[in-house]
Each structure stands twice: as structure tokens, then as C-alpha cells.
Amino acid sequence: MNRRKLLGGLLAGASVPALAACGGGITSLKGDGGSGGSGGGSSVGGLVIGTANFTENQLLGYLYAEALKGAGIKTNVRPNLGSREIVIPALQQGDIDLLPEYQGNLLLHFDDKAPQTEAGDLQNALTVALPGGLEALSYAAAEDKDVFCVTREAAREYGLRSFADLAKQNGKLVFGGPAEDKNRVVGLVGLKNRYGVTFKEFKALDASGPLVKGALKKGDVDVANLFSTDPDIEANDWVILADPKALIPAQHIVPVVRSAKADAKVRKALARLGGALTTQELARLNKLVSNDKKDPDRVAADWAAKNGLTKE
């Protein structure tokens, strides 16, 4: 990665006027339209942290909570709220104050034609694309990308090594992933537009969870949308298909916060966490929760204490 771009990405966090707005959908978890907030940025009163509906994002939410509590900031975690189409509007309307996100997919949520794929470029683009009142703070060293996987047997049978190979089997294979994949660029839309891929069927399952992984094992789906930090990929010897046209951009973990809550204490605490959290460590923590069935809040608390994040 270009060092200058990386530095620019890590420093990007100032509020920039929005050039794009969020689309339709739920506007408030309360169902009353909510009330967006703005101001000079203050964590007084604490922060409500929301998470999406998959294990890793919940774990990240608790890691954010531990880092903030270590800086003397009160927190409340609301886990498993739903997909990006739900949690982003909730953040905009002030139902939650902070959300763990992923650079590339977040940018594509607001600009589905965004060309950026490198971390520093993505961070700069996010400062422009995010709606007014929201900021993307320093991104973490850790990255978790969407990956499209097949079994070793399917790879041999159909000659699958990359996304381009999928087009040779158009109309024959079944794709499985979260329901949002049907209309996302990092999903069926992008595979068709960039690689000319079409499928026999799409099965709406979950995000790198037991449903989609179970379907891949049983052969109910041929291609599954998983996450690169999922320990089951290596455990099952599944094949990650290559992406030669860079459909899937960099996906470093990035905190998205309401500017009204983003004071210096919040920024510093989350930057410390981001610097300590590597991809390897995130994968290890995921395994503790997903495979060893440990509670994500306990895993987060233990890791934060071990890495000196519970004290300023």
C-alpha cells in the first residue's frame, strides 16, 4: 500500500459536507422518524453502539465498547440490529451513535459506482460520500473482505478458480448469501455487470453464518458469500475464488460515528483499538466466538485488557 495514501486514510475523519444521501428504508428503530443530531462533538452522556446481524460485527461492537470504557466513556451496545440497510438509517436518525463498518462495502452503499478499491482512496471517498452528521474515523489494521467460496470438489468439477470461471457455468449454479446480496454490487449485481455471471438460483440465507455454510456443505448452494476471517473456510478446505477485476474493494474495519458524539476522547480510544487490532487477531477472536461458543462481550473484554485498552 502507498504509505502516503495510508497516512491520508488514517488521518481522514473531519466532517465533510455530504454529496450523497442514504436511500429509502427504515428511518428509525423507534419507528417514529427519530431525530438526527449535530453539534461540536461530545461523548458526555455516553454512546450507544449498534451492530449488524452477524457474529464478527457484534464482536467489534463490544471491542468498541471496551476501548471507550477504558477512556472513561459510558457505552451501551445494541447488538444484532440487522443489515446495513437498517443500521445506517438508525445511525443517521440518532437511534445509535456508533457502528463498526467495512470501508469498501460502506462506500458502495452510498455510491454503487465508486471506483476506489485501495484503503487510503476508500477512506478519502468516504469523507465525501457519508451523509452530513456522520464521520468515518481512523480505520483499523484489521480487514475482513467478502469472499465467494466453493467446495474443493466443485472447484475441480466445474474448473472454478476465479469469478471469471463462473461465467462458463451460467445458469447452472446456485448462489447463497444474505438476502441483500441479490441487489448489492458486492453480490449478484457486480458479478453480472463486471464478469457476466448469472446463476440458476439465488438462496437468501445469512452472512457467513450457519445457514449458508451448512448449505455449502450439503451442496444446496454451489457458491457461498463468506467472510475472509471465517475460520471455517480453512477448516473445510473451501476454495476462495480469485477476483482479477477487483469487484470486491478493501474492507478495513472503520468506525462510523455521529459527529455530535465524536470528541477527542472517542477518536483517540478508537484509533488505539484500530492500531492494535490486526486481521490475524480478528480471525482468532472470531473463532473463539463462532467455534468455541464463547460470549462476544467476554472475548472482547479479555482481549481489550490483554492489549492495554482498558486504561488510558
From TrEMBL:
<dbReference type="GO" id="GO:0022857">
    <property type="term" value="F:transmembrane transporter activity"/>
</dbReference>
<dbReference type="InterPro" id="IPR007210">
    <property type="entry name" value="ABC_Gly_betaine_transp_sub-bd"/>
</dbReference>
<feature type="signal peptide">
    <location>
        <begin position="1"/>
        <end position="20"/>
    </location>
</feature>
<keyword id="KW-0732">Signal</keyword>
<feature type="domain" description="ABC-type glycine betaine transport system substrate-binding">
    <location>
        <begin position="47"/>
        <end position="305"/>
    </location>
</feature>
<dbReference type="GO" id="GO:0043190">
    <property type="term" value="C:ATP-binding cassette (ABC) transporter complex"/>
</dbReference>
<dbReference type="Pfam" id="PF04069">
    <property type="entry name" value="OpuAC"/>
</dbReference>
<protein>
    <submittedName>
        <fullName>ABC transporter substrate-binding protein</fullName>
    </submittedName>
</protein>
